């Protein structure tokens, strides 16, 4: 009697796509993409990165929309279980680094609970690379000795004082709540005249930087476009020395 074929479970790769520019993909990420069967990708993954996927691989968009994050998260997880169950090698491709505000850890834990072998392939986080490539170093010996990366998503009951003593703040997902965030930071002890910058569509050809002050944001005088990272701190001033192409920049109040 023929023995029934035992299906070997496929493997999940939690893979960081980097901040936008496909050249910022790691060699390992490119190698894994070239060998995979299925790619489940997010909104912030640029189309150029998807070209590294093996020809014939199924490319499935699983971007989340506001208000339906939980359903989408559940659906993503069902896809991972289904494809891995079929023995396929599945890439869960996330913008930046999978474990920086990407719910990567949740997917990792659930995959392990289902007995799916999982490998992490870190990516260059937008939190680091987007300010840097816009000419804003997060640290500088004389200007900034510490930085924090924080989420601006649903921040109503935050004690903003905890961020007053950190030299540089990098705020992700903070565009929608920017006015409340800036007011909170000022209440928490940061100076209203402190320089800030929104780096919009960082590391891509359409990158645009909007420089302003914390007070400008608090009084709703800035109108950045998503995706954007908000950098708060004196390091923003170094940008003028570091960026040799001022044509890419905008001044405060400029719309893109
Ligand atoms: N895991 C990702 C972050 C996910 S949170 C990482 O490590 O980069 C999504 C937030 O990242 C966006 O709301 C935005 O604030 C920021 N972001 C990601 N890519 C960006 C880009 N190219 N330019 C500006 N902001 C970006």
Portion of residues within helices: 25-40%
What gap, in angstroms, lies between the N and C termini? 69 Å
Tell me the name of the CATH class of the largest domain: Alpha Beta
Q: Could you say which overall geometry the principal axes of the C-alpha atoms support?
A: elongated
- Oligomer designation: single chain
* Major sheet size, sense and barrel closure: 6 strands, mixed
Average pLDDT taken over every residue: 92
* Record field, number of beta strands: 11
Give a written overview of the molecule.
With 256 residues, the protein is of the alpha/beta class. 26% of the residues lie in helices and 21% in strands. The chain is built from 8 helices and 11 strands. The strands form 2 sheets. Strands 6-7-10-8-9-11 form a 6-stranded mixed sheet. The chain has a 5-stranded parallel sheet with strand order 3-2-4-1-5, with helices on both faces. Helix 2 (47-50) links the parallel strand 2 and strand 3. The protein is elongated. The chain starts with 10 loop residues before the first strand and ends in a 6-residue tail after the last strand. It binds S-adenosyl-L-homocysteine (SAH). S-adenosyl-L-homocysteine (SAH) is lined by residues 19-20, 44, 94-97, 100-102, 125-127, 130, 172-173, 199, 201-203, 227-229. S-adenosyl-L-homocysteine (SAH) binds at residues 19-20, 44, 94-97, 100-102, 125-127, 130, 172-173, 199, 201-203, 227-229.
